[in-house]
Specification:
This protein has helices at about 5-25, 35-40, 45-50, 55-75, 85-95, 100-115, 120-140, 150-165. By secondary structure, the chain is mostly helical. The chain is elongated and about 55 Å long. The chain starts with 6 loop residues before the first helix and ends with a helix.
């Protein structure tokens, strides 16, 4: 999401944050334009003033959720490069927190839409996965950096299994 610090940009940011929270709580079950607008405290017409489509808003909300998740994980990992197993362990441990489970449920809901080829989910998910692969690569030990894609796949699988245990 581009940060525009004008009044319009600040309002867009507020709407995106509200929509991200709504989507995590509700998923797509109740994510129509009216529900998203209501969660931001504005009318559906005003929502459409700030975002051309509902999909634009959802793509922006996904990017905010991905940024927040990365920031949270940065705090959990040591500042030095670590073994791949450590990254997987930290990711799975963080997924056990109730708040994270809600985000992950929504993430896998979005992945389902991306797999079906629906836009903007497909391109947004691919962008997020590329960023996470890069994020993982930056944290891996020098000899393991080429394993970032494999580590990401391992994490995604472990997270899915963790959610299925509930």
């Amino acid at each position: 999401m581009t940060r525009d610090h004008s009044e319009t940009g600040q309002k867009r940011d507020e709407i995106v944050l509200a929509a991200a929270g709504h989507l995590v709580r509700e998923g797509f079950a109740n994510s129509g334009i009216r529900a998203l607008a209501e969660s931001a405290g504005i009318s559906d017409r005003m929502l459409m003033y700030y975002f051309k489509t509902k999909d634009d808003l959802i793509a922006s909300a996904l990017m905010v959720l991905a940024d927040n998740m990365s920031a949270g994980l940065d705090a959990l990992l040591p500042p030095r490069p670590v073994a791949a197993a450590n990254i997987v362990e930290v990711m799975v441990q963080s997924a056990r927190h109730r708040d994270q489970k809600a985000v992950l449920r929504f993430w896998f809901e979005i992945i389902g839409l991306a797999i079906r080829g629906q836009e903007p989910y497909r391109s947004t998910v691919n962008h997020i996965l590329e960023r996470w692969e890069s994020w993982i690569s930056e944290r891996l030990r020098t000899g393991q950096k080429d394993q970032a894609a494999s580590v990401l796949a391992q994490i995604e699988g472990a997270l899915m299994l963790e959610l299925l245990k509930d």
